[in-house]
Amino acid sequence: MNNYDLQKEQYFEQEYNVWAGLQDIEEPEINTQLAMLSDDELEQLQQQQQDEQQALQNHTDSLFHAEQEKERRREEANERYRNRITGASLAELFALAPEQEPFIVQDILPQGLGLIFAPPKYGKSFLVGQMCLAVSSGTPFLGHETTKGRVLYLALEDTPSGSYNRFLTMMTNLDLHRTPLGQIKCDIAYELSDEKIKAGETIYEKLENYILSNQDTKLIVIDTLGKVRSCDGTEYSYKNDTLETGLFKAIADKFGIAILLVHHSRKDIDEKDAHNNASGTTGLVGGVDTSMAMVRSKRDDLKTYFTVTGRKAKSTGYYIKFNQDTLLWEKTEEPIDPRIQELEKLSGKYYNKDIAKLIDMDEQKVCKFVKDNYKSNFEKYRDSKGAYYVFQGVS
Q1: Residue 219 three-state SS
Q2: Cα(207)–Cα(220) distance, rounded to whole angstroms?
């Protein structure tokens, strides 16, 4: 008899004894009562007892199964609770004293999932290529210290010949050409069937297998996100964006590395917030830990505003300039226009004529000047008197 049947039998006996009242009747008394019955009465009594016993059996079976079902549901609920909710009290949290998650690139790229985006041909690949060299060699990137480690660069829009010329020039001008190549652990793959990442059906399996085979990995750059997305352009949605970023983030968090996705900006630009301009839904930027954007007033402008924000990264922004001779991005100190400094001080409602008088400018040029140069928060409105702005100070 198995454990289930034993439990059931014990349960039945307990219920039957209580129900029949046999625990309160002495055995001699039962025998005396039975001896006074005729054969027909005895047979009738036995049939009645069998019927009652069968009814009780059915009843106890029902009760037993009901208890088993309740227990099963309790276990399922407990399992869901254990899987979905974890946490600690404040006392437990502070007692744990978790280690601070290190930055791969100090202040701007912590462990986790990052996204960098800009319109096409802004130099994103040059910028992330420079970052790959900095991390794999342990040298600074745009003045930020790096954590040295292996890098995987998925240059999915590049070719071996293009990478050769670009990386040779960059390494020469970063003074890395004298460093033994074995000390610069940067792997480059040009397609998902590349020997370095061929193991695995999906991009997520390929990345996990690569990291397991190269446990000194610190950074993976995917250039571009569009080359590895699991859905085509007709299926982009908030749900898909959050799902895909969630899968990449899970890998980054699991192995304690940074994964940086290279992406494009959308066409309808939000002039107030550069980080709203990634192509796709808000689920894309909302699903990453760090957002990086490259902004220009005009496409052919030599200066580019590089802005970073995120959950862990320090919100910052500065101008960078691409050197076409060295193929390197350089941090530059943009001279501050005193007129912009005046705008930064504003808080409240100002018409074009008010701003024109304040900064000594033609009223017709105010609108473009504010849009091109003012980096803080403001709202633009128009009424019967013309265009005016509500400034909110420095953001």
Answers
A1: strand
A2: 9
Together in a domain, 241 and 255: yes
Residue 209 burial by Cβ neighbours in a 10 Å radius (0-12, 13-18, 19+): middle
What DSSP string runs through 94-157?
Answer: HHH-PPPPPEEETTTEESEEEEEEESTTSSHHHHHHHHHHHHHHT--BTTB-B---EEEEEETT
Angle between helix 160-173 and 124-137 (nearest 10): 60
Q: Which residues pair with 115 in a beta bridge?
A: 261, 291
> 366-373 and 352-359 are packed helices; what angle lies between their axes, rounded to 10 degrees?
80
* Single pTM value for the model: 0.65
Task: Give tens-digit pLDDT for 147-186.
Answer: 999 999 999 999 999 999 999 999 999 999 888 888 999 9
Q: Which residue has the higher pLDDT, 392 or 176?
A: 176
320 shares a domain with 181: yes
Q: Which of helix, strand or coil describes residue 42? A: helix
The pair of structure tokens assigned to 2 is: 């198995």
Residue whose structure tokens are 């930020």: 144
Strand residues in the chain grouped as ranges (E): 103-105, 109-110, 112-118, 150-155, 186-189, 217-223, 258-264, 290-295, 303-310, 316-323, 328-332, 347-351, 378-383, 386-392
What domain range includes position 250? Answer: 103-332
Quickly count: other Cβ atoms within 10 Å of residue 220's Cβ: 25
Which 3 state secondary structure label does DSSP give 68?
helix
Based on the structure, what is the number of domains in the chain?
A: 3
Contact predicate 105/151, CB 8 Å: no
Task: Give me the amino acid identity at 162.
Answer: G
